[in-house]
Amino acid sequence: MPNGTSRLEAQYAKGQILGRGASGVAFIVRPRDSPGRKLVAKEMCIVKSDEKRRKEAYAECDLLRKLSHPNIITCCDIVIDTDMLYIVMEYADGGDLSRVIQDAKVEHESDESRRLPEPTVMSAFVQICAALHYVHSRKILHRDLKPANIFVVGETSDLAACTIKLGDFGIAKMIDGTLGNAHSTVGTPSYLSPEICKNKPYGMKADIWSLGVVLYELTALKVPFHAGNLPAMALMICTSEPKPVPGEYSAQLQELITALLHKDPDRRPYVSAVLQQAYVQGFAAAEGAR
């Protein structure tokens, strides 16, 4: 390795920065032995980071090494270079689901009849469910399920033909035992479940709540609960019911969202039960036939 060349740069050519977040910078890289292949490197300074951030980074590395599913972003490599850690992952050329929702919202504002078609919404939903079922079956909570952490492979103008992949397992948690619970408050406020808002122990059903928020957002093009501050948001999540989804969507879809957003986690279905519903199975069969 030439002087001044990092371990990452010895293996990969660095490209444009894609974004910056609390955990570090994400940018395009191309393997030097396969320059036509485009990947993403997530960079984190493990010296400047606090102990919590370092533990999260190493935990994400350990977790990503174990995960292999067509609807989960693949971890291709992990590079530790002095005080920097890089997680190299597959590149999702369609961006993330938050961008899809924002584009749909802009179109809806110019033409109120335009929304994401129900088959398109459910195509994305069943793929997210497949990824969540995979991680839950391995006793893993994602804990930050939201559109910004759900990625799209393919041309987003035809979302129904795209592959949807769950990513960003930075605050995921392994649960000891099938009845295990987590206790720390993590996640993004709009997607937090009532039990997390109440600082109660939580399990897989907290991810199910977040799944319901994502499904609602795909239809209404906004989150079901919104407030100007965290305490007001938590109060809404715990005590208010969301407005019904727009009338162009079916009663079955509304019923599904209502079940996912039940205040009582014991009344929410597990993702395995969601995938067994006749309404959902119809779209899952279509996905399998693609």
From TrEMBL:
Residues 12-280 form the Protein kinase domain. Keywords: ATP-binding, Kinase, Nucleotide-binding, Serine/threonine-protein kinase, Transferase. It catalyses: L-threonyl-[protein] + ATP = O-phospho-L-threonyl-[protein] + ADP + H(+); L-seryl-[protein] + ATP = O-phospho-L-seryl-[protein] + ADP + H(+). Its EC number is 2.7.11.1. SUPFAM superfamilies: Protein kinase-like (PK-like) (SSF56112). PROSITE patterns: PROTEIN_KINASE_ATP, PROTEIN_KINASE_DOM, PROTEIN_KINASE_ST. GO terms for molecular function: ATP binding; protein serine/threonine kinase activity. It comes from the Eukaryota. It is an enzyme of class 2 (transferase). InterPro entries: Kinase-like_dom_sf, NEK_Ser/Thr_kinase_NIMA, Prot_kinase_dom, Protein_kinase_ATP_BS, Ser-Thr/Tyr_kinase_cat_dom, Ser/Thr_kinase_AS. ATP binds at residue 48. The keyword Cytoplasm does not apply. The keyword Lipid biosynthesis does not apply. Belongs to the protein kinase superfamily. PANTHER family: CAMK FAMILY PROTEIN KINASE, SERINE_THREONINE-PROTEIN KINASE NEK1. This is non-specific serine/threonine protein kinase.
